From TrEMBL:
The lineage of its organism: Bacteria, Bacillati, Actinomycetota, Actinomycetes, Kitasatosporales. It is found in: Cell envelope. Belongs to the bacterial solute-binding protein 1 family. Keywords: Signal, Transport. Residues 1-35 form the signal peptide. This is Extracellular solute-binding protein. InterPro entries: Bact_solute-bd_prot1, SBP, TAT_signal. Pfam families: SBP_bac_8.
Length: 562
């Protein structure tokens, strides 16, 4: 699980929006994605994936949006950046007329917090603008996997269902194939052009929406540049005269100098995920990304020298006493960010969205607070080798029992919600009704309490534009985040199963589950590198080699998505 997996906030592309009211950015990356994709077997669980020529017949044509020009264009896999709020008079229109028929759809979605009443002004305004009467079945996001499993096992499912990638476990992948409609007849090739905002979704994100050999899922696009960044207290670095380290050795030497336990100051928190990126370890929350073809051999990350080197370097940090004692005890997640803002640690790794979240939060308390992400370096201090993460990890499906008109209404809803930043449709989807859900302060939209309660989740999952970052209240943070992604994107490679949604055979799908705990034990000195090597040997014997052969055949038969 990535270090930000403990977040209890709702995952939302709207978390990449700014308000002058400080809030914590919402992030969620959960357990590894093992979703169902085509490749033989009976309807239900279909092991494998769909790529190459077969995928080309299924995927929508890509037509980039020209409605709004970003302040910072996307490059090297980065998001696009918008550094200013667009005045109402300058907002563009991306959906000239409501595409919905006025019909009804029930949508089941995860929700964090107390769901609003069905007839609230935000839902009413959205339904009118889209032309679809949406009835939300919001479910507790914390226990959503349980509800999802129960609903999909029944014969009566909602018209539309949101499925986060981290919930694609157990029998849920089988249900995806069995219960949800093929959208290819409506979206494949040039057919998607009837829905221009969906046509602007990157092809690599659509590739992730192929399940059971068919285009079933509307994806939530994301940048493929690693989302874990080493964040540092730029204000405290400047005050103490520190420069950002440029190699693993420099980092360790600096950390020893910067740590002053008597003053309750430590150089860093747990840095395992940063180490993986420094040493070029195949990474990501999707286990399929842990495999890569090296020469003529398919290799898993746990078999590589880079993996051991990353763990050994992290162990040295712990052994040197430069890691905060709470991290030594295993208290990570959101606590690491609190230790960072309290000035108890100078560096921690977290989802890059924390750059805005923590800055917005602290500006109301500490005007001098300043943070940034430093660039990854390689093991020798040179250029790093970084690995792309999956370009989508939340999907929305429509039932096979839905009528043709309901499918079209579903796509009308998704097209509206995928409107780009700087449009009227975006403002309504993101902020709700002006004067009720938000007001304008110095040109920036600020949610009212009603807006905070009601414009939260739901429509975030039914369509999203190409990846973007828009924090107009902190334009320097937007610029910094996008430019960091662009610089890191220049060193980012795509592993053999990038962009593919893979279902591992059930008999092998939990083989690597114990490695995370083993990693944590090793870096904290409770176990040794030799224990990892023995675990790898055991993994091979328990099915790792068989799983390798299975993945290799998948690659030979289908090719990669890239």
């Amino acid at each position: 699980m990535t270090p930000n997996a403990a977040s209890s906030s709702a995952p939302s592309r709207r978390s990449f929006l700014a308000s002058t009211a400080a809030a914590t950015a919402a992030v969620a990356v959960g357990t590894p994605l093992l979703a169902a994709c085509g490749g033989g077997g009976q309807e239900g669980r279909k092991e494998g994936t769909t790529s190459g020529k077969e995928a080309a017949k299924i995927l929508p044509a890509y037509v980039a949006s020209s409605v709004v020009t970003p302040d910072i264009p996307a490059k090297n896999g980065s998001a696009a950046g918008f550094t200013r709020a667009i005045p109402a008079a300058e907002l563009k229109t991306s959906v000239p007329k409501a595409l919905g028929s006025g019909g009804k759809l029930t949508v089941m979605s995860p929700f964090w917090g107390t769901p609003p009443k069905d007839d609230n002004p935000y839902y009413t305004a959205m339904n009118k603008a889209v032309g679809v009467d949406v009835a939300w079945q919001n479910q507790d996001g914390v226990t959503y996997d349980q509800k999802l499993g129960a609903v999909l096992a029944s014969s009566d499912i909602p018209d539309v269902v949101v499925v986060p990638g981290w919930n694609l476990m157990g029998r849920i992948p089988s249900a995806v194939n069995a219960k949800f409609a093929d959208l290819g007849p409506y979206l494949s090739g040039d057919k998607v052009k009837e829905y221009p905002n969906l046509a602007a979704v990157p092809t690599e994100a659509w590739q992730r929406g192929i399940f059971g050999g068919q285009l079933r899922g509307i994806p939530m696009p994301a940048s493929y540049v690693t989302d874990i960044a080493p964040l540092y207290r730029k204000d405290l670095f400047a005050r103490k005269g520190y420069t950002v380290p440029g190699s693993p050795e420099e980092f360790l030497a600096w950390a020893k100098e910067a740590t002053d336990a008597k003053s309750k100051l430590w150089a860093c928190d747990d840095m395992k995920w940063t180490a993986f990126n420094i040493f070029g370890v195949l990474s990501g929350s999707d286990k399929a990304l842990w495999w890569n073809l090296e020469g003529d051999k398919l290799v898993n990350r746990i078999e590589t020298e880079q993996y051991l080197e990353a763990l050994e370097w992290t162990r040295k940090l712990y052994a040197a006493g430069v890691v905060h004692p709470d991290a030594v005890q295993g208290k990570a997640g959101g606590d690491a960010g609190n230790r960072f803002t309290a000035g108890e640690v100078l560096v921690y790794n977290q989802n890059i969205s924390d750059w805005w979240g923590k800055t917005a939060e602290q500006r109301t308390q500490n005007a001098d607070f300043e943070m940034e992400a430093f660039d990854y370096f390689g093991p020798d201090g040179g250029d790093p080798t970084l690995w792309a993460v999956q370009p989508a990890n939340i999907f929305t499906f429509v039932s096979k029992k839905a009528s043709e008109q309901q499918v079209k209404d579903f796509l009308a809803l998704c097209n509206f919600c995928a409107a780009p930043y700087g449009t009227k449709e975006f403002m309504l989807t993101a902020y709700g009704v002006e004067g009720t859900d938000y007001t304008l302060a110095k040109g920036l939209p600020v949610k009212t309490q009603q807006g905070v309660n009601e414009v939260n989740g739901a429509y975030d999952y039914t369509g999203n534009p190409a990846p973007y970052i828009a924090y107009p209240d902190l334009p320097e943070v937007t610029k910094g985040m996008v430019e960091w992604q662009q610089r890191m994107g220049a060193f980012t490679k795509k592993s053999s199963f990038f962009g593919l949604t893979v279902t591992e055979p059930a008999r092998w799908s939990n083989l690597a589950d114990d490695f995370e705990q083993l990693e944590d034990d090793v870096v904290r000195g409770r176990k040794k590198i030799g224990d990892v090597q023995q675990a790898v040997s055991d993994w091979k014997g328990r099915g790792g080699d068989g799983l390798r052969d299975w993945y290799r055949k998948l690659l030979d038969d289908n090719g990669s998505a890239d």
